Amino acid sequence: MSIDQLLHLPSYLMLQLVREARRLARNDLRAPHVTVLAFLAEQEAVAQKRISDRVRMDASDLVSVLDDLERRGFAQRRRDERDRRRFTVSITAAGGQALRDRLEAARVHEEELLAPLTSQERVELTTLLRKAYLHHADLRVD
């Protein structure tokens, strides 16, 4: 298969854009960290199992992400008052600020990444990508 043929595959193009987005971001908060912080920002305090289920992250991978976030002061784990065997996790003020900073940086990077597209084309691209993503997300079991 030639490079020209690859340029006709949406999946190939998406992967290449992801690589470019990562190059532009150059941030130490990786996608799993941002995903967990975004979920925590919508919660009071939540069990690790619930986070794992909702963000579709393996429990052992989540522990590693939470260790990183806790080490940076972005999240806090506490024993669950109702079930002392479990931990709940909450976002800290520093974690909320880190999330806001990272999302703002993402918006700036998207401007550069999607510069050739008009505003309407960006809306269409987002709509189509969301539609494809949600179709597959709906097929997964929470």
CATH architecture grouping: Orthogonal Bundle
Helical/strand content category: mainly alpha
Q: State the fourth-level CATH superfamily.
A: Winged helix-like DNA-binding domain superfamily/Winged helix DNA-binding domain
The largest β sheet comes out as: 3 strands, antiparallel
Task: Specify the overall morphology.
Answer: elongated
Could you state the order of secondary-structure elements as H and E?
HHHEHHEEHH
Strand order of the largest sheet: 1-3-2
Number of strands: 3
Give the fraction of residues assigned to helices: 55-70%
Q: Kindly state the mean pLDDT as a whole number?
A: 88
| Portion in beta strands | 5-15%
Number of helices: 7
Low-confidence blocks of residues = none
The CATH class designation is Mainly Alpha
**What is the CA–CA distance across the termini?**
38 Å
At the third CATH level, what is the topology name? Arc Repressor Mutant, subunit A
Q: What does the radius of gyration come to?
A: 18 Å
Tally of domains: 1
Protein name: DNA-binding MarR family transcriptional regulator
Keywords: DNA-binding
InterPro entries: HTH_MarR-typ (IPR000835), MarR/SlyA-like (IPR039422), WH-like_DNA-bd_sf (IPR036388), WH_DNA-bd_sf (IPR036390)
Organism: Lentzea atacamensis
Q: How would you describe this protein?
A:
This protein has 142 residues and is mainly α. It has a single domain (3-139), classed as Arc Repressor Mutant, subunit A, CATH 1.10.10.10. The chain has helices at residues 3-6, 10-25, 31-41, 48-54, 59-71, 93-113, 119-139, and strands at 46-47, 75-79, 87-91. It has a 3-stranded antiparallel β-sheet. Strand 2 and strand 3 (87-91) form a beta hairpin. The longest helix is centred in the C-terminal third of the chain and has 21 residues, at 93-113. The chain is elongated.
